[in-house]
Specification:
Low-confidence stretches: none
Number of strands: 0
Distance between the termini: 48 Å
Structural class: mainly alpha
Oligomer: single chain
Largest sheet: none
Number of domains: 1
Strand content: under 5%
């Protein structure tokens, strides 16, 4: 039962960040919204690993989080003009 509440709050967070992505006008705000969505998605993978009792999903979430971080840093460097 508590898992349903947690999943509902996570999906609500994804919805709010998607609304921010759609309604924002600056590219920086869109990048932050995408970063929030990938972070929440990584958390969702961790929750799924807990529900299914499978540790392999934790590795997937870790790699997904690292790739997300590298992607956001690359986009930030590009927008700053550093690349």
């Amino acid at each position: 039962m508590i898992i349903n509440v947690i999943l509902g709050l996570v999906i609500f967070g994804l919805l709010l960040s998607f609304i921010r992505l759609v309604r924002s006008s600056s590219i920086e705000s869109k990048v932050v919204a995408i970063d929030i969505m990938t972070t929440i998605s990584s958390g969702l993978i961790v929750i799924f690993a807990f529900i299914s009792d499978n540790g392999l999903f934790l590795d997937v979430a870790l790699v997904y989080g690292i790739l997300s971080f590298i992607g956001v840093v690359a986009i930030a460097r590009y927008l700053e003009g550093g690349i």
